[in-house]
Design goal:
Blueprint lengths: L3 H14 L7 H10 L21 H10 L11 H14 L2 H13 L4 E4 L15 E5 L2 E8 L10 E7 L10 E7 L5 E6 L8 E12 L3 E2 L5 H17 L10 H10 L6 H28 L7 H24 L24 H7 L10 H12 L20
Parallel strand pairs: 1-4
Antiparallel strand pairs: 2-3, 3-7, 4-5, 5-8, 6-7
Helix pairs in contact: 1-3, 4-5, 4-6, 6-9, 7-9, 8-9, 9-10, 9-11
């Protein structure tokens, strides 16, 4: 199906058969997936119709106009933005059919078990071990900075299966059951007072080989699909003009003329323009995705997202003066999602500090942009051909 008019008609027929006002939300989402209107570019039977990715906008517009429920994408963002494209790209047919439908509907939340205390920016140095045991693997190790682990049913996990290989090899990619008794999730309280992140301890966790994604030892290759999609999902989200962090600041400026100064005006205009440029660049990036998989350009988008968020939130606190120093609530909570716009300026200022760390540190992403986008010489890597077990720690 490559015709927008045909897809629009199909969506309208679906809405007539499943009126949003009178159809249970979960039933509606299940029916939408089964009708191929979840991800139109996915194969038939897996939430799609094998249509061009660009036609998703046609479906979304019709559903939004009809008041149809969404699948709460912010709550299940890791599953949608990272797990799903990885399962689609490397999973078996059985894995695709098992995981994709409940993931998209939101029945099963996913998290990401990648970073470790000694392997964050240098992710390939990870030390969590997976040892073959019959038709499965026994996993032991520790992961950190795991968003939504306290709500997750499944996790995408990379672990070292061959310490004799250099660090980028000998890694294998798995789907881990977070309800396994060997999985312990502990909250990490952040500067905001909340604990949306977690540390996860894995003790003799048994993962069946049927939950391996990709070949044994190909985990780094598989993980690149996850990481590229992660950076696009963080830095390339579709937002309207004055959406995101710039919106509350612009609204305060218009509503509170007594706060204005010439200097603040100049800075606000500069950041407003940069936010609009970033938004339009994100639109262009999504159009490029129509033709294939995300590339290293997503790293540039994520870089800009982090810098802009931090500069805009700093300006907002300064604009508000003494009010900007207030903080609504320091109660220890474990939220299901991050809500930048729905909170106060103090929360935005503190939470945005993590934007240059999560999803790849800005320093690492600068290297990726330099080497893979601009074609600059790579940094010397003396450990490239050294077995992981021989690396200094």
């Amino acid at each position: 199906m490559t015709d927008a008019a045909e897809l629009r008609s199909r969506t309208q027929e679906f809405l007539a058969a499943h009126p949003p006002a009178s159809t249970d939300r979960t039933d509606f989402l299940k029916a939408r997936f089964d009708a191929g209107l979840a991800w139109v570019h996915y194969p038939e039977g897996l939430g799609g119709l094998g249509a061009p990715r660009s036609l998703q906008a046609v479906v979304d517009a019709e559903l939004e106009a009809a008041g149809a429920p969404d699948n709460d994408p912010r709550r299940i963002g890791i599953g949608l933005g990272m797990a799903a494209p990885t399962v689609l790209g490397f999973g078996t047919e059985e894995q695709k059919r098992r995981f994709l439908r409940p993931l998209w509907i939101g029945e099963e939340v996913w998290c990401q078990l990648f970073s470790e205390p000694g392997a964050g920016s240098d992710l390939a140095a990870l030390g969590t071990r997976a040892v073959r045991d019959g038709d499965g693997w026994i996993v032991n190790g520790q992961k950190v900075w795991t968003s939504s682990a306290h709500n997750a049913r499944w996790a995408i996990l990379i672990a070292r299966t061959d310490p004799e290989q250099p660090k980028h090899r000998g890694i294998t990619y798995f789907v881990c059951d977070m309800t396994d008794p060997g999985v312990e999730v502990r909250p990490l309280r952040q500067i905001t007072g909340e604990a949306e992140f977690n540390e996860v301890f894995l003790t003799d966790v048994r993962i069946p080989d049927a939950h391996r994604l990709g070949a044994v030892g190909d985990g780094w290759k598989v993980a690149q699909t996850t990481l590229m999609n992660e950076r696009v999902s963080i830095g390339g989200m579709r937002i309207p003009r004055e959406g995101g962090m710039i919106g509350p600041v612009a609204a305060t400026w218009r509503e509170r003329p007594e706060l204005r100064t010439h200097d603040l005006h100049q800075r606000l205009v500069k950041l407003w323009v940069e936010a609009e440029v970033a938004r339009l660049t994100g639109e262009r990036l999504r159009q490029q995705l129509v033709a294939g998989q995300p590339g290293p350009e997503g790293s540039g988008m994520k870089l800009g997202f982090a810098r802009l968020n931090q500069e805009i939130s700093g300006l907002e606190v300064e604009l508000l003066g003494e009010e900007g120093l207030l903080y609504e609530d320091w109660t220890m909570r474990r939220p299901e999602l991050v809500d930048f716009v729905g909170r106060d300026a103090g929360y935005r200022y503190l939470r945005s500090k993590g934007n240059s760390i999560e999803g790849g540190t800005s320093e690492v992403l600068l290297n990726i942009v330099a080497e893979r986008v601009l074609g600059l010489p790579a940094e010397p890597r003396t450990d490239k051909d050294v077995a992981w077990k021989d690396l200094a720690r």
